[in-house]
């Protein structure tokens, strides 16, 4: 876990991506065609646990996995206590473009905190955000971004942070879809989560984003309780409030950088065993999928490919899709998926419906 | 979490205690009298969820807590998702004297590994253990003990460690009771755990001992799955095996020192909310109980006092019991318990039966 010693958190790395993310051209790839919902052929609407999925290898992979691992007569039966499924969040279970929601939260927090910090009017890096100076923001150093992240995410009690996120979630809207972020979740993934849970699997979010950030809404959005959210985590410091009560203060120090190798390491730290199913969409999910597959027996590894510029976004650069620094799906990951039998989900072809509010 | 930066793990601290623990005089306190099992007056045997407990304030505190927090009509009703109970292990759910089981495991591991390390015959600190030189062991430095801990607990894959512990658990016997350690568990605490779970509580072990150590047997011994074991944790490093499979190597670096303030901090890290009930027996559990009580509403905080030299051990130094460096229950903790309304469990008076095999 060398990465844990690195000062820059994934949150900060996220912040560094803001400009790249904002200015990324969402050029549709040459081979992109309008989406046509396909009729479900292998299942009927009444019994289909995955109605937002088109029939095809991706949907079938989920159905086959559940059938195989929950059939006591199968040699690949998985005992109930070992039924663990892990999901990356950004780009896997909800929208991550043009930038991660948590980055927008941090910037909005600066604006919200500004009245209590009149000095920010003239003090960088805050001045750039407060005045909306995009040119200055483009010149943010790593140190600037670290200051923004730590200023907006620490210095309060553990309990005080959650309501800040909840408030923001209730009012902030996605720049493209003009909907609150809790509605930016992918309906097909909600169906997979429910289908897995209905078959005895425990579903976990395993995100490079902030654990405490995601915990504030995950039960409502995903039906996943706080203890099943594994994410990048800041240190806390035990202290006493004025009334003598034991409290935890959020500390400007990264404890867990839950990305890449950190995902495999933290899954072990939190769960103590390997998942049997893992879902991701970027290079940061590679080791989680490898670690899952190494559990032996039947396992399920899936990667979401954002190839639907009409209904969502299109980026890779795998398969000739536009390059991006936010949620990069490199060709090397695509090649590893092919070589290892992981399933790549084409949003364009495999998902009949992306959001619950689409009709 | 300043403690996390400290090089010495709680495991190492445990090791430093071995001599103190081994030489501790288990002098019974002046006020100690033989135990007499008392008849259950408030409950009948058929319905009593806590048959190994004598009637009294400790048993009543558990019964009242469960009744109050699971009664929907009560203003102190606790929603099912918030029903969390945390248990320290050593000295709270099983025997910790004369020394922690994990310390014996480490020393036995040295003996077991010795044939592959002929240099240990002449190389300290291993030489002292291999030759049983107690005088030399008495002079172990902190550095010696760190070497022993890291040598015996790291350098293997995460998966390889568990079977080592399981093998040891199956054959090692407690020096006083001559029983395997899984039989050193306190029957009254097993009943409390089951009673809480039967009423919708999720039970966690929150131990200063090694998380991976406890995870190997906790399901069998306590009915608690690996993901509900929070303990001191070593770092791991993601790597690739020769066959290309993703593996985790155990690294000689402490990631979480789950003791004292670390217990409150790690409960938040793993669960994301405060417990409603917490059980401990030492200074290292103080903050866990404080943090639990600060959850507001009805909560339950209990401390096991080892005052039964006849059936188990007697040590404090609270209440005039013999002092010890293994599982210290200081008078200051006893005073805090009295001031804050925490319940102190007298093993002598509150527990009708300590071990399941007692008849």
Characterise the protein shown here.
The structure is a homodimer of 359-residue chains. With 359 residues, chain A is an alpha/beta fold. The first copy, chain A, is 36% helix and 14% strand. The first copy, chain A, is built from 15 helices and seven strands. In chain A, helix 1 crosses helix 7 (142-153), helix 4 (101-113) packs across helix 7 and helix 12 crosses helix 13 (286-293). The N and C termini of chain A lie far apart (45 Å). Residues 1-43 of chain A have low confidence and may be disordered. The interface between A and B is large, with 38 and 40 residues.
Can you lay out the helices and strands and say which pair or pack?
2 copies of one chain form a homodimer.
Chain A: H1 10-16, H2 18-23, H3 57-70, E1 84-87, H4 101-113, H5 126-130, H6 134-137, H7 142-153, H8 158-171, H9 187-198, E2 202-210, H10 211-215, H11 218-222, E3 229-240, E4 246-256, H12 261-271, E5 277-280, H13 286-293, E6 300-305, H14 331-340, E7 343-346, H15 347-350
Parallel strand pairs in A: 1-2, 1-5, 2-3, 5-6, 6-7
Antiparallel strand pairs in A: 3-4
Helix pairs in contact in A: 1-7, 4-7, 12-13
